[in-house]
Design goal:
The chain contains 13 helices and no strands. It is mainly α. Helix 2 runs antiparallel to helix 10 and helix 6 packs antiparallel against helix 11. It is globular, with a radius of gyration of 18 Å.
Amino acid sequence: MKERKNNTRDIWLELLAVAFLATGGIFVRLSALPPINTGFYRVLFSIPLLFPLAYRNLSSLCLKDVIFLLFAGIFLAGDVALWNLSFHYTSVANANLLANLTPFTVIPLSCLLFKEKPPKFFLLGAGITLFGVFILIGGKANPGISDYAGDLLAFCASFFYAGFLLISYHLRDRIASSVIMFISAFGSAATLLTAALLIEGIKLPHGFPELYPVLGLSLCLQVIGHNLLAHCQGKVSVNLSSIVCLSQPAIASVYSYFLFSEKLTGIEMLGIVIVILGIWLVKAQYK
């Protein structure tokens, strides 16, 4: 396994990737299509956009790599489907929080699979970051009994996303990020198409109002967000990477403030500060 240097520049690049990923909740809520159909078109429309970035490196793939990437796509499809569905049962805040609890899966599995032992104060920094996320979400969320199904869906999505992160992290040593996203998209599209057929039926987008949210998801999440995140996985430790991804709920809250005039309370702003402090503390452990 190639050593990750965890340079500050790459941390900022990953934060930029997370900033694009944080737009997902906005586009999903704006989509008039059913949630799994929305996820299917998000992946489908990304394939022609990713091909120009990936085609030069496709010839170097072996069959084993393709199979692993298709499995990565299946994991990503599980994340997309469950996360999109969760918005119909719980708040955007809760969905963002619970779907980003990947460190609780990634960290123990990375120790087991990649022998990446966390540094001395890693758990402290991770705990501070997670504490900040809970403070941030606590200022908005007011869950009732009806929200529990959505919370569970979002939480389950975090396990599927962790599976995608671990596979792409392993392959990123020798495969370009654009290739990872391009090939895995076929596994995601096939899985989401099957799920849509069984659960919702296939719905075609009609007109620009139904088309632009899925195009926004394709561009901001698949082509830019996940692609840039996969690139950073070749530069940043998987443990540190999973903690940086916890900043997504904080960034989503800032978007809500500017786009929907949702005011940030003092508690929410405190949560954002604590999230940033936790990420900084984790970053300081990697030299």
